[in-house]
Amino acid sequence: QRLAQISEAVNDRVSLYAYGLSSLKASIVAVGIDNLNYDYVQTYAKSQNYSQQYPGARGFGFIRRVEVTDFAEFMARARLDRPDKHFELRTLTPHTNSYFIIQYIMPEHANLQAIGLDIGSETMRRRSAEKAAKSNSTQLTAPITLVQANKKRLQGFLIMQPVYNTLNVP
C-alpha cells in the first residue's frame, strides 16, 4: 500500500515536470527555434514561479544538438548571445560525436554549473536525448549526479522532450 502511494506520488511529480517541459516547448515552437535567444529565455523564465509551479525541480533548460562541423559557429553565436559574452563547453568524458549542449537553463542563477554542459559526453544522458529525438517522445534518464547538485550522487534525473525546427517531425 505505502509503496503504491510513493510510486503514484513520484509519477504525479514527473508528469508535472513533463507538463512544464511541454509549456517551454510550445513557447520555443511559437518563437521559432532559430529565433530562440538569451533575452527571450529570460523573459519566459520571469513568467514562471518554478518553486511553486514545479516543486522539487532544479530547473528547465534548452539543450541544443550541435554537429561537430557546426561547433565553432555555435560557440561563437552562444557567446555573442549572452550579456557577459561568456559561454564555455563543459564535458563529462571526451567523445567525438555530435554535442548536446545545455544552452539555456532556468532559473539560471541556481544552475550556473550546467550552462555549456555537453550532456552527450555522458552515456546515460546521451542515450536518453537520442531516444527522445528519434521517437519524438518524453524520455527520463536513469538516476544521475547533476553537475549543480553539490555532489549528491545519483539523486537527480533529466526529463527530455525534443524540439524540432519544423512542425513536421523528421
Can you tell me about this structure?
- Helices cover 39% and strands 11% of the residues.
- It is globular, with a radius of gyration of 16 Å.
- The chain contains 5 helices and 4 strands; from the N terminus they run αααβαβαββ.
- The strands form 2 sheets. Strands 1-2 form a two-stranded antiparallel sheet.
- By secondary structure, the protein is of the alpha+beta class.
- It has helices at residues 2-31, 38-46, 50-53, 71-81, 123-135; strands spanning 60-66, 99-106, 139-140, 159-160.
- It has one domain (2-160).
Topology:
Elements lengths: L1 H30 L6 H9 L3 H4 L6 E7 L4 H11 L17 E8 L16 H13 L3 E2 L18 E2 L10
Antiparallel strand pairs: 1-2, 3-4
Largest sheet: 2 strands, antiparallel
Binned strand content: 5-15%
What is the string of helix and strand elements? HHHEHEHEE
Major sheet strand order: 1-2
Poorly predicted segments: none
**What sort of overall outline do the alpha carbons produce when their principal axes are compared?**
globular
Structural class: alpha+beta
Number of domains: 1
Q: Count up the helices.
A: 5
Please estimate the helix content.
Answer: 25-40%
Rg measurement, Å: 16 Å
What is the arithmetic mean of pLDDT? 91
What's the count of strands? 4
**Termini distance?**
43 Å
Question: How would you sum up this structure in a few lines?
Answer:
This protein has 170 residues and is of the alpha+beta class. Helix content is 39%, strand content 11%.
Keywords:
alpha+beta, 170 residues, two-stranded antiparallel ribbon
